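Possible race condition, two jobs.
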Amino acid sequence: MIEFFKLLNAKCEDHARLISLSMDESLSFSQRSAVKLHLLYCRACRKFRRDAKLMREALRLGRDKTSDFPKSSTSSLSPNAAESIAASIEARMSNDQ
């Protein structure tokens, strides 16, 4: 309960952090309640949440479509380097889910 009252007086930066965190993991009841209450009166944080959701969806759609991108025939990377970079990106993206 103390956490809830502290969060009521928190800055938008703190709520933005919690909004971002809520997209990856569950928040405590106090955190969820404080964020919901803050979103009722803070237009900037509502916009931040909407934009973060849109960006997350765009990245997910882009990741799903990466196999559709045409391969460049004028790449300055060696095939091994290009494959290594692609594998690294895919590994990081799968860890983010």
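Job #2 (started ~2 s after job #1):
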Amino acid sequence: MFKCNYRKLILSFNEFHNVADEVPEDCQFCLLELKDGRYTAGIWNGNNYDKNGTPSGEFIRGTADAVAVSEVSKWHPLDCYDMTNCLNDEEINFINLGPEGEEIHSVIMKDFKSLEDGDFPKSEQYCLLILKNGHLSAGRWDEWTKGKDGTFVYAPALACHSMKTVWAWTSLSSDDFFEAEEESERERNREEELNRNPSVDQELFKYGTDIEVYYEKALERLKKEYPWATVTQMKKVTPYAIAPCHGKLVFGQVSKSYYGTDIVTPWTGGSGADDFISFLCEYTKTAVQNSNPAEKFKYGTDINVYLDKAYEKVKKDYRWVDRKMLDEACRYAIREVGGDLEFAESRNNAGSDSAETENDSFTVLDCSSAERFIEIAVYEYQGIALRANPVVAEYPVAFGHIEIHGWNLEKYVFAKLKTGDYKVTVQAGDRVTGGTRVFFITPDCFEAGTYEEFLDRYLEIVPASSFGLSKEDLLSDTKLKEFLGYQ
């Protein structure tokens, strides 16, 4: 890289302009001296001058991060310099940016560090950057992984300089974002200190500080009404723990913060241990009710019995499918989890004839009954069946502006499949997000005697109220009628 020693490097900025006299060109990146004496940087986004000749606009530093021109005293261009030649000279440790002079306002920047040496800015710290292409820039340090990875954000939409592009950096002045982050870190440190030796409320924890004891006591009560109840079933809803919070032990739910620290949401529904046990019974009751093995596994514990039932339902309309096609694409199992049997979905071994291993990854399915699992398998099998049947022709329906519950209809396409069956793809969205649904047009629709009767049956599958096009819209489309095989 450059031969210059960044530790000894000093940059002198000598081309400052008073913002009251002139403003930068639009989108110019500038070093800024604020009226309170702090230094930052930003991209000029100017509007115009008001009737008094005062400029209006702001210097953008990132998404929702800008400095109003009214806060700025002077600006200095940053993006017009290429210091490559100077940085390649190992004897140089002082670089003038612009000519020095007695009447010139100059600012010195030094104390540069390197990310490659393991010197990282603090979170949200705004920094002056020397890039590896010899140019100058600035950005706010956004840490991805604590102390390991990150970027310097400098414009909206998280436009940033990656670590690989930065040769050296030095911090600019503190600002509201950085000070808020510093206060947040101080608060985390205070909380950590308080929680090292938390106090214990003897009334609240009269059965000790092992959360399992409280779950077991709640389980004893639940079993009177639900004999099949287990702690595993109770913990299907977000479990409670005993954790330190603000210097004392509490019953609470624990999650992880962005920084990897515990966020504890304390239980506040009572003041004693028995109050908490009563709460735990009510809180977990629905999960226990929905875990009745007599309902869940009423067809036994052989997964193939359930899959056969799902296959029979799918085969009725998706006449080209066979079980092998479905089993190769997605596999289900009945697994023991925490002592309870559960319906589970495994994808690691899809297509394999070997038995699932302990190392095989799986997802426990939220099924309160055998019928619910069969519904899940049917839906999965239907998708697999459609993906296995190639499209041979398409007809995109023409339409004007159609708004559906705040979303705009973007695509409505009928497709003929290799087997002669049909499906339709509907896509809608707004300025931020969107979604696509695919519907199989079941054969019974085509058993209708007339095209109008076909549309009546079709719109029960793809209702106009949900997907934008009514019977009248489709009925008037003669090309669609022909595409669907009606003359």
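Residues 391-483 form one domain.
Logs attached separately.
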